[in-house]
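Ticket #4471: structure output looks truncated?

Reporter: J.K.
Steps to reproduce: submitted the chain below (189 residues) through the standard prediction queue, then opened the result file.
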Amino acid sequence: MSTTTTEPAGAAGAASPTLHLVRWTVTSGSNVQSRGAVVIASGDHQWEASAEGNGPVAALFRAVDTALAGVLAGHPRLIAYDVHAVAEGPDAQGVVTVKVAPPETAAGRRATGRYTGEARSENIIAASVEAYIEALNQLLGEEHWAGATEAAGNRRRAKTAAAAAARAARRAELDEGEAHHDPSAWFER
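Returned output as attached by the reporter:
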């Protein structure tokens, strides 16, 4: 089983706000389902998710889709995935090209278009997820997608604030006398 982690500088491409792949990790092996996890940021918003797939690239693409489902109101459709070696040998770089279409759930102008991302690396898995993020940046850079990352980030922030208030309310309900336990009492038996 192998695990790979990277922290790229960020995706190039679309106009602000741009999605940046903060970090990713993937675990894959011959007799196990691959599992990928991502952290994606845009401005002061951050999305995290993990997912399984048939191989490391599929697992990472699904993790990206899961993380950004609120931004894109669904999962983008993968139209093409292409890998080309730039040179010969084990240290040769590969160029990955990814083409996506908007989610099937998108409506109006948001349902149209094809967006391409490309990345180059000695690590094909890294190049794959970076190309996927670049394609999504191209999609989100369209005028009709303006505000999608901010709107999703604000929804997430509201949910987080509500959850924090609920946790604080539960803590306030605890009886301080009942909650205190002296761990040394067990030894004094």
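Triage note (M.O.): checked the attachment and the full token line is present. The chain has five helices and seven strands.
Status: closed, working as intended.
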